[in-house]
Automatic annotation (TrEMBL):
PANTHER family: GMP SYNTHASE [GLUTAMINE-HYDROLYZING] (PTHR11922:SF2), GMP SYNTHASE-RELATED (PTHR11922). It comes from Mandrillus leucophaeus (Drill). InterPro entries: GMP_synth_C. It comes from the Eukaryota. Pfam families: GMP_synt_C (PF00958). This is GMP synthase C-terminal domain-containing protein. Residues 101-194 form the GMP synthase C-terminal domain. GO terms for cellular component: cytosol. GO terms for molecular function: ATP binding; GMP synthase activity. Gene3D superfamilies: 3.30.300.10. Keywords: ATP-binding, GMP biosynthesis, Ligase, Nucleotide-binding, Purine biosynthesis. The keyword Ligase applies.
Length: 195
């Protein structure tokens, strides 16, 4: 679905749920992915990340998906367990992202930056019925003063776009990684984690 005419953005629902808060209760809702054929307008994406969960109550997170526009979003997930190989992939992605952040000098501006491994394998032709066997990574920058609520670091404002793109480039080199995503969602109380 195209959601804006200024920038060609495509929004799609991902087949995973994350933790969120609706009212006073913890909830588990879907993740909305956004992709683009153009360079993203990060301010517009942050606006959409605030708007989409308010309008679509079955969505509590919005992520930008780097790479070419997603034509066929994944409809299934890669079976994933806490095995040595899976943990090694996650540790490598986390190391690359944090190493680049430290080298850039912006580590002190970001309160926290969890790196999440998701069981999503993009860019498969549904007609070929290729099984889901890769995983994707979410970079989740978090700026806060109390670690209860917070906002994502907007590329181009709180963190240079070049730093984020370098993270994407280096993480993409890790074997078994399909796509890299950037969490655009503000964090209400109790939702600093992905589950």
């Amino acid at each position: 679905m195209q959601i804006t005419s200024l920038h060609s953005l495509n929004a799609f629902l991902l087949p995973i749920k994350t933790v969120g808060v609706q009212g006073d209760c913890r909830s588990y809702s879907y993740v909305c992915g956004i992709s683009s054929k153009d360079e993203p307008d990060w301010e517009s994406l942050i606006f959409l990340a605030r708007l989409i969960p308010r309008m679509c109550h079955n969505v509590n997170r919005v992520v930008y998906t780097f790479g070419p526009p997603v034509k066929e979003p994944p409809t299934d997930v890669t079976p994933t367990f806490l095995t040595t190989g899976v943990l090694s992939t996650l540790r490598q992605a986390d190391f690359e992202a944090h190493n680049i952040l430290r080298e850039s000098g912006y580590a002190g501006k970001i309160s926290q930056m969890p790196v999440i491994l998701t069981p999503l394998h993009f860019d498969r032709d549904p007609l070929q019925k290729q099984p889901s066997c890769q995983r994707s990574v979410v970079i989740r920058t978090f700026i806060t003063s109390d670690f209860m609520t917070g906002i994502p670091a907007t590329p181009g404002n709180e963190i240079p776009v070049e730093v984020v793109l370098k993270m994407v480039t280096e993480i993409k080199k890790i074997p078994g990684i399909s796509r890299i995503m950037y969490d655009l969602t503000s964090k209400p109380p109790g939702t600093t984690e992905w589950e």
